[in-house]
């Protein structure tokens, strides 16, 4: 392994689950929860689809950035409609890799690009504010239970 490859594979610290949200139906209000079961198809109680977009994650550190682009305070997690807010771990550095989250294992597959709904939610410029900060989609490698405060770690 080259030195660059080794550096890219390391993380300074584990992350943690700061927020969990379920979307019971398309365009429905996001419901915050303290614990969730991740099944083979995705989160129990969430309308997400199975496969490489079964679960969505966003970094807590991006919420104030999006808010700054909108000219205000940090955005609220439920407004982005992602399942998990993860703090302390650079998810972008883990593209294509697996992570443990609670007792589950997910593989980060692709960016979670914003949709036109961001303009509805945040107003003019909402789509552009979320670009590059919308988080990641993941597929389920191993089902499990996730609670607020659980560690999030890259699988070595």
Task: Characterise the protein shown here.
The model has no long low-confidence stretch (mean pLDDT 93). The strands form two sheets. The protein has a seven-stranded mixed beta barrel. Strands 4-3-10 form a three-stranded antiparallel sheet, with no helix packed on it. The longest helix has 8 residues, at 62-69. By secondary structure, the protein is of the alpha+beta class. It has five helices and eleven strands.
SSE layout and pairing:
Elements lengths: L2 H7 L5 E8 L8 E3 L1 E5 L2 E2 L11 E5 L2 H8 L7 H4 L3 E4 L10 E4 L2 E8 L5 H6 L3 H5 L5 E7 L1 E4 L3 E4 L2
Parallel strand pairs: 5-6
Antiparallel strand pairs: 1-2, 1-6, 1-11, 3-4, 3-10, 5-9, 7-8, 7-11, 8-9
Number of helices: 5
Radius of gyration, in Å, reads 15 Å
What average pLDDT do the residues reach?
Answer: 93
Give me the secondary-structure category: alpha+beta
For the termini, the CA-CA separation is 14 Å
Low-confidence stretches: none
Share of helical residues: 10-25%
Strand-residue fraction? 25-35%
Q: Number of DSSP strands?
A: 11
Tell me, briefly, the overall form. globular
N-to-C order of helices and strands: HEEEEEHHEEEHHEEE
Strand order of the largest sheet: 1-6-5-9-8-7-11
Major sheet characteristics: 7 strands, mixed, barrel
């Amino acid at each position: 392994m080259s030195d660059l490859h080794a550096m890219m594979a390391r993380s300074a610290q584990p992350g943690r689950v700061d927020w969990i949200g379920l979307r019971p139906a398309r365009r429905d209000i996001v419901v915050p929860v303290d614990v969730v079961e991740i099944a083979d198809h995705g989160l129990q109680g969430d309308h997400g689809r199975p496969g490489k977009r079964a679960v969505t994650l966003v970094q807590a550190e991006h919420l104030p950035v999006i808010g700054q682009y909108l000219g205000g305070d940090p955005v609220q997690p439920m407004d982005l409609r992602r399942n998990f807010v993860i703090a302390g771990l650079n998810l972008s550095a883990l593209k294509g890799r697996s992570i443990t989250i609670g007792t589950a294992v997910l593989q980060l597959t692709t960016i979670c690009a914003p949709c036109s709904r961001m303009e509805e939610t945040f107003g003019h410029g909402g789509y552009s504010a979320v670009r590059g900060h919308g988080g990641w989609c993941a597929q389920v490698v191993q089902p499990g239970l996730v609670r607020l405060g659980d560690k999030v770690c890259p699988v070595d």
